[in-house]
Write a structure and sequence with these properties.
With 96 residues, this protein is of the alpha+beta class. The chain contains three helices and four strands, in the order H-E-E-H-E-E-H. Helices cover 43% and strands 22% of the residues. It has a four-stranded antiparallel sheet, with helices on one face. Helix 2 packs across helix 3. The chain has a single domain, classed as Gyrase A, domain 2 (2-Layer Sandwich). Strand 3 and strand 4 form a beta hairpin.
Length: 96
Amino acid sequence: MNQHFSLKKIHQKELEQLDGWHHIKKAIAKTFSFSTFNDAIKFVNTVALLAEKHNHHPEITIDYNKVSLSLTTKDSGGLTEKDFALAKEIDILLKN
């Protein structure tokens, strides 16, 4: 694997603590499935508010009832603590 895109040991430990997130190049990503399109959109709107609160905005793709999120810290050129913190909060949203 290209060292430029390798996951630092500290980030690997954080990734292992997340539910279903995986490493892709300079980001972590996860796809969420919902019963309906409306449920997917409600989730996206909730994530948008959370992202705004943290001033940390994911890449979001919506495909009917599936929502894919990709988190990276663009101004740092890769993964930072901000990405893992936001991923944890997004997972908590789904548990509530």
